[in-house]
Amino acid sequence: xxxxLFTVGDPIADTKAPTDVPIGERWSERQFRGRLVNPxxxxxxxIIVVGTGLAGGAAAATLGEAGYKVKSFWYxxxxxRAHSVAAQGGIxxxxxxxxxxxxxxxxxxxxxxxGDFRARENNVxxxxxxSVNIIDQAVAQGVPFAREYGGLxxxxxxxxxxxxxxxxxxxxxGQQLLYGAYQALERQIAVGSVEQHARTEMLDLxxxxxxxxxxxxxxxxxxxxxxxxxxxxxxxxxxYSNVFYxxxxxxxxxxxxxxxxxxxxxxxxxxxxxxxxxxxxxxKGDYQSKLTLMSESLRNDxxxxxxxxxxxxxxxxxxxEDERDYYLERLYPAFxxxxxxxxxxxxxxxxxxxxxGVGPGGLGVYLDFAEAIDxxxxxxxxxxxxxxxxMYAQITGEDxxxxxxxxxxxVHYTMGGLWVDYDLQSTIxxxxxxxxxxxxxxxxxxxxxxxxxxGLADGYFVLPSTISSYLADGPFEKVDESHPAxxxxxxxxxxxxxxxxxxxxxxxxxxxxxxxxxxxxxFCGMERTDEGLRKAIDRIREIxxxxxxxxxxxxxxxxxxxxxxxxxxxxxxxxLGELMCIDALHRNESCGGHFRAESQTPEGEALRDDExxxxxxxxxxxxxxQPPVLHKEDLVYEYVHLAQRSYK
Amino acid sequence: xxxxxxxxxxxxxAKTNSVVKKAVMAISGIVMVLYLIAHMVGNLKVFTxxxxxxxxxxxxxTIGAPALPPQTALTIIRIALLVAVIAHFWAAVSLWRQAxxxxxxxxxxxxxxxxxxxxxTMRWGGVIVLLFIVYHILDLTTGTVNPDxxxxxxxxxxxxxxxxxxxxxxxxxxxxxxxxxxRHGIWSAxxxxxxxxxxxxxxxxxxxxxxxxxxxxxxxxxxxxxxxxLVD
Amino acid sequence: xxxxxxxxxxxxxxxxRGMNLTLRIWRQKDPSVKGKMVTYKVTDISPDMSFLExxxxxxxxxxxQGDDPVAFDHDCREGICGMCGLMINGQAHGPQQTTTxxxxxxxxxxxxxxxxxxxxxSAFPVIKDLAVDRRAFDRIxxxxxxxxxxxxxxxEAHATPVPKADSDAAFDAATCIGCGACVAAxxxxxxxxxxxxxxxxxxxxxxxxxxxxxxxxxxxxxQDREGFGGCTNIGECSAACPKGISMETISRLxxxxxxxxxxxxxPKS
Lengths: 648, 232, 269
Prior knowledge:
The structure holds 3 protein chains of 3 kinds. Chain A is of the alpha/beta class.
């Protein structure tokens, strides 16, 4: 590995999980050993929470209920808009309501295995333990989960597990869970325990005496850039899939909060772990602004195929049965169309690379329901998937009951994020990171219906408990806007903002974003190679130069300026993109969503290298022109045995 | 965005709950509808002849006699109706003003999708019906503006008015408006009083339509009969 | 060859010619100044574009010309976050009963003139151009649109079975995305459908019963306080609602409100 791209620093380790007791007791032991803040003192402590998705919304509400003074920030108009709202499938919990052999241990095991043995055992076990409380909490809040005729909660099987542990609310589980957290948050806003900052974007972290003590934020309506102070800062700003420009994330989803915190000293872990979801609606044209996911559940009844011949451009229904290649059923007879997401995505890419893709540009494969309609009848298919079929018809103008759907993989979720310890505290004391923004629980691949579980576990149960251990040292000395650290941070943000506006070049932020996204997709997407990643790194550096010399943003920063917002986010995506490529290049193995062409089995499956890469890669930011520093956290498996995944 | 940004926020707060206003409108409407049913049935007495009709008119004024003073029942009815009209009108004006305040800047282009003609004309239709009622009382109850003057008998006043095609036309237009007002009003009252639901929806809509048509027809038959000489 | 998503996709294979459209868009710098309709032309618009992608194209042009791009709210662009919302040719979210982001240009034809305005309601003041401030909805929720259950206090999820019919009906109401189309479409600028959806969602569930009376009186009082108009049962709201929330929810709110008032519940001042 060339030293010019990065250097290796000291190893890093989590010191908070009590490893002296069995894994099933560690969480309760940690809670017991942790220190508490007495209720009278909580009123004197302020906590900033950035983001109002499942993690941030739940955390802000819970901390408010506990008696802390909370300041909640979000960039949309209402906390109810956070992109957790778009999660479709469901939420896992080890309730074992089906009596099918599920347990906390099995959920723990499935998640570690699903993450291709790149997740931390202690965190995952806690996640599985807490999962059952989440369901209780959500039901009590009035979340209308699907129920059976007896009035009890329904479950379904999801994401290739052998038990039914997924709770769902039709195809809108994320929406309903988010509204539960949102309503709890609004209740706290009403009683005054949470102060709201709508349409306000975090642009920097303020560190005083080594502790995170506040943020710099811009009011997106008035344009005012100001400082906000607290005894602790919680970041719950979600994932960074939009580095690819086209993803299933919301247009506003961004990396700015975690990236600026990273530049202040928080380590960024496993940035290259991205999840590419196999069932999305394909791209239509170069004006395309986002990709839409179709629930994974479609693969329960739909059959995936492409023509056997390259360049066969006959309409799908004119291609006879024996000239179709049902490639997933052919390659994976045991799991067929239900192989995990990373495998389904990569095989779709492979057939398209062979020139057998369908639709515009040959970037799609068929997901065919003809057989299901024959077998079950159209009404049954309508009842099961009606809303998804309607959505598909709305977007594509095609009728999926008549012609097969066309699907293609799209970036969906980022397993990487800021490094946190068992307490969810980053390498900056006083800064906690929860939900998709941290790296902790999914390893190199996230299982379906686990994102909602992790966001809510962090927000409702884990963070509110662990943060008190830190705050027990507080309240800390009062800091205000005249503090040198605050002045420096504020001025830095103002200067950068002014700089973005003053370049006055020839390219819009969207044009840079599109180019970066294309590059990331081509070289840091479903398949990564040494050569491609090096090419990408070189080009990203050029893009960065061009960005800072040829950007065009109109208007000023003292008003509502959406182009300026976008420009700031793209600047961070460019830097993050480079780190992702470096991380992908250094990890010379395939694991989960990270597939290195150089590391595969003879059958073309992902080949892990546990000998050399069973660690978390935590990256430290270094100032301009110096390569980032890699800190390794060794992954120790006491309870789950490392094994090669097989879905044959 | 902690500070509420500049711009007009409506500081004026509705004093009465908007749903309560609608309930007042629904209940006062029901009172008036009950009266209209009685009124229409009474009108049909015109076909039993001058004598009988005038006698009916006299009877209304002497219900309960001799135990009660003359016009007791009628006065009670009139007070109840007056209260209902005022309440209905107050609620309508109040909601209208609230709606005006709620959208000070109108759309440049606005398309109605679900509105029926009846629901769209509730407000102006209501005003016209109100003006009609005033005229109608001056015409047939007090006779003030009746061609035959206030000394005439009810039957004569009726014949005198409806023999004039212009007056009849005014009655017809107003009654059709009243019919439409009722059609939406009946459905609306069920909704406002929280009695409509998906199962009942079709029944309520059908009932509102049939009821309004029957009532309007029942009223219209009298002026037409006079105009075409069936009653003279 | 690599599967390349963006650049290799040219015009869609369907070979439909791009459309030329005349847009009249409400431009308003900030709440303190008066706005007006301004005419723009866009050319070669693909029928497969979403409505917002068409506006993206316009904005890219405006930025390059040094003009102020049109401000409009949007986020998820998959019809669920409720952030987007435009009055298109006089209809909330345009001619289809869906969100603006899910409206596609195939609903229009070459040469069309399209009027685009913000939601108009004094409770939703304009921030800029087509973006409005909808926090009044959040304050209605703050007034009672929740079940008070602090984290950690919940009983076991199966402790209270809920009849499937009630649960399904509650879900239907709970799908409201808070986009504000109901207010925008209502001739009275009433927020009744929004409030009713939440009252119905929580009122149908056993968990929502203890606060049922207080919830409805406080939420209705708050929506009046925010300056929304009153409901006169016209039905434009439900016809414009991208999630198809039914007018039945309003009947249920009315029923609950009158019942709560009879039972002595009064709004907090």
